[in-house]
Amino acid sequence: MSEVHAVRRGLLRDRCAAAGSAAALVSRPANVRYLAGGAPPGAVLLLGPGEDVLLCPRAPTGESGHGRPDEALRVDVLPVPDGDPVVEAAGLAAASGADSLAVEEHDLTVARHRAMAKAAPRLLLADLGFTVEQQRIVKDEEEIGCLRIAAEITDQALGELLESILVGRTERHLALELERRLVDHGADGPAFATSVATGPNSGQGRHRPTDRRVEEGDFLSVRLGASYHGYRCEIGRTFVIGTAPADWQIELYDLVFAAQRGGREALAPGAAYREVDRAARQPLESAGYGEGLQPWTGHGVGLEIEEDPQLAPTAMGKLDACVPVTVEPGVHLPGRGGVRIDDTLVVRPEADGGPELLTMTTKELLAL
């Protein structure tokens, strides 16, 4: 992977040079890991004008959750543990002859930006913007391979839970068990805080598990994902507990399933973000559930669980091949519950079989 990371850094260096910056400082952890292979806590990456340097407050420990820095990359540990790597980087860039430094202003506090300016007063600080985030959107096959394994782990953990007795157990307990199973199957950890929602809580997009116990006849909706080598996937499923589903549950489930299928089928290179969102959103709006829908029906995934692109009504841009995204429509009826169905897929051209589904757990409405 060292060659891959070197190529990524080279692309960024070329873009900075074209914008007139002799050097760049990357501080957002996911961006550091993307370019350096690893991101020890607090580390920043200085690109040029001479040698690229990963500056760390403390020596890297090699923990899998942080990745392993590229062996070809120079790693400097700050002489003072409580020092600030961005300030050190500014001084190093100035000492290396740079007259300008592009920084991720969206990641830096005003105080840190001022400290950099004070440490290197002759260094012009420019805004790198979201250049690295945009570079990260299209994934290579090794990245997609990590996402595929993360999805397999997630499917395993969810499948095992569905084989256990659920009635009487709390949302919180089930969420903790799912996260333990993710780690047992080889995940770095959960990709995000696992959500388990039962009964009137089901179908909410960001429900935090409570001590409510699973009851017969409940909708049970889960949203979880594994992180594997830093790459994060997402799955959401809804089930019925104990008995055959009621008519209203079948009707609502079929509607959300149709919406999710529409979004999945719209994924193709060249498809506008807003059109994919529309394909998933329109069936729900037509059925009278427009109010209360979340502001997007999908988003990119990778080293972060919510990356560009956003599949939203006002989103600008078009999909490329090899972009992993979620499609995750849902409906929540206050006081009754609801349905969420969520998959992670990779955009592929029709000649390659169309969108690649990574999360394979059945979307059939099961009575558990």
From TrEMBL:
Compositionally biased spans, kind Polar residues: 195-204
SUPFAM superfamilies, sorted: Creatinase/aminopeptidase, Creatinase/prolidase N-terminal domain
Residue ranges of every copy of the Creatinase N-terminal domain listed in the record: 8-138
Chain ranges of the Peptidase M24 domain: 146-348
Residue span of region Disordered: 192-211
Domain of life: Bacteria
Pfam families in the cross-refs: Creatinase_N, Peptidase_M24
InterPro entries, per database record: Creatin/AminoP/Spt16_N, Creatinase/aminopeptidase-like, Creatinase_N, Pept_M24, Peptidase_M24B
Protein name: M24 family metallopeptidase
